[in-house]
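This entry is listed below:
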Amino acid sequence: MNQLLAAALILLLGAALAMLPVKNSWRAGFGIVSQTIATLLAWATVLPVLRDGTEAYVELPWGYPIGEMHFKLNALGAFFLSWSLPMTLLGAVYAVGYLRKYFDGPRHVGVHFALLNMISLSFLMVYTGEHAMTFLMGWEVAALSAWLLVIWDYTNQKVRFAGFNYLVSTHIGLIFLVAAFMILYAQTQSWYLDDWGDWMSLHPGTIRNTVFLLLLTSFGLKSAFFPFHSWLPRAHAAAPANVSALMSGVIHKAGLFALLHFLLIQGKPDAWMGWALLVFSITSAVIGGLYTVGQRDLKRLLGYSSTENVGIAGIGFGIGTLGLAWDVPGLVALGFAGGMLHILNHAFFKCQLFYAAGCVYQVKHSVDIERLGGLAKLMPITSLSFLVGGIAISALPPFNGFASEFLIYSGLFTGETISVWAKLPLAGVATLLAFVGAVSALSITRAYGVIFMGQARDDTLPDGHEPGGWMLTPLLMHSTGTVLLGLMPVLGLALVAAPTRLFLHAVPDAAALQAMQDVYDVLGRVSLVSVAVAGLIVLAWAAAWALRHVLRQQAAATGPTWGCGYTAGNTRLQYTGSSFSKDFSQNYTGVMTLLKRQKAPTGYFPDDAYVVTDCVDAVERRLYNVIGHGDESAGLISKLMHEDDPRLAFALGLAAVMAIAALVVLAEGALP
């Protein structure tokens, strides 16, 4: 643990140096160098924990009221740290290219890199903190740092509103978290998470159930599960691309870590907890997937897909929780291994997609799908990376999204000896998950086809070209990870195996080994399928290249042809994003709220006609309507009550005193 403490100090030092009154390039350098050193130091502790399954532990004395602080790194925290820190480092590298235009100006870029250091520091605190105060401090450091990163372009009112939305949502989640912690402290008189786990494992019942629901709500808000997701697409659309990538792929995974951590320490769960997780998660996956289909803003589309993918990971955790409740080791291994592997895979391909979107924005100054087009020839590296990430997020072979979702499917179609009445709803969840995969493929096909294929739709945008190496390097590194984890998913399982075994701690060794072997066998078959599909893709590409080369050698006479007035393609003949998804969207108008703004053409030569269709968030829209109606109702009540009358104020005060006195008497008996 000494290396982790040193890493934390290095990150603090790097953040302080990034704030010095020096050139912006030096400030960025301080941030990147400190993150590199901290990542290497953390790996020195993380890798042995993942390899051996041991734990690193340290105690630090502190003053009242915190007392002695405990930090423990087990395999679960090591798994999250193993990729969170290096991906944050890659986000800092990407930021050098993305924020390049500010480097020679008066803007203090060092603030951005200092905040990225604080994000990495929060990971060290949350993933190792065994004291409630250190856990909450890390939780809050991550929330405030992410908020300040989101509002980088703070002069834009929409950006400020998105940041405010995120700040409010994350602190509502904090309220639920603190409420759960207060209940646990009241029961144990301890601030240590291990003590809470001991109490929960020995006291199943109403109080533990209440704590579980509070924690599920808090972590659902943090990870943007439906219906707590409305902050996510706004924040992603407003933030710089590297911040959007880190929030989606890395930062809000802290909520999933916390969920896993409390599932691990609470002892044997009740079966209803697993079913609740499954319902919560499949709802998030379905709704998040549907909302991706109707988005005009590419970053909002990717934001909604995060709600979809945390739901998919949550399905795995629900399967594992049911396995714990039913004492079925095979379900435990498949569920938790599949869920955690999907977290890892999602971090790779989602950062990859956001970085590709950032490359498009950096060059074209827009991520409006309806204004873009024809970028595949102008930005081939970005185009290919987006395509690879799109295939991965659609859970298609040969890339990594297929591997983790196949594990989850294996858990849903389990061959274990469980009740047929349990297998039926699991099969229903599998059916909905297949639907989610199809919807995801539709939304990515729509986005890639409209943005990268065809011709440019808006001539007022700048010409397309590849961005610099600072942005392409993280993009290509994530793309490489997406491909490798798809072709060789056992590489991901090497990180996931140790934390999965933690959930099998109460299972006999022979059963635990067999359960893990089943996971290896499933991923072995996945690897064969992925390699075969990759080979077919390579062969098809080689055949197409050879065919074009042969045809190019044969000169053919060319001449004009009659085509019913058609002479050449133009933007008016191309699909738009709205037209591509219209038929599908119309079937789900109860979920997808589609708004249309249009101006009909007038006269013989109309020049200002348009139709704009957008999909708005029904939850957010309904929430603001309720708030608006509540404000009107409060104003009406205030007017009817004549609140400026002092007699009313006196009467209300007297009623409050009487109510408090009544509560005291009911709780403690009559006053002496």
User: Anything to note?
Assistant: The chain has a mean pLDDT of 86.
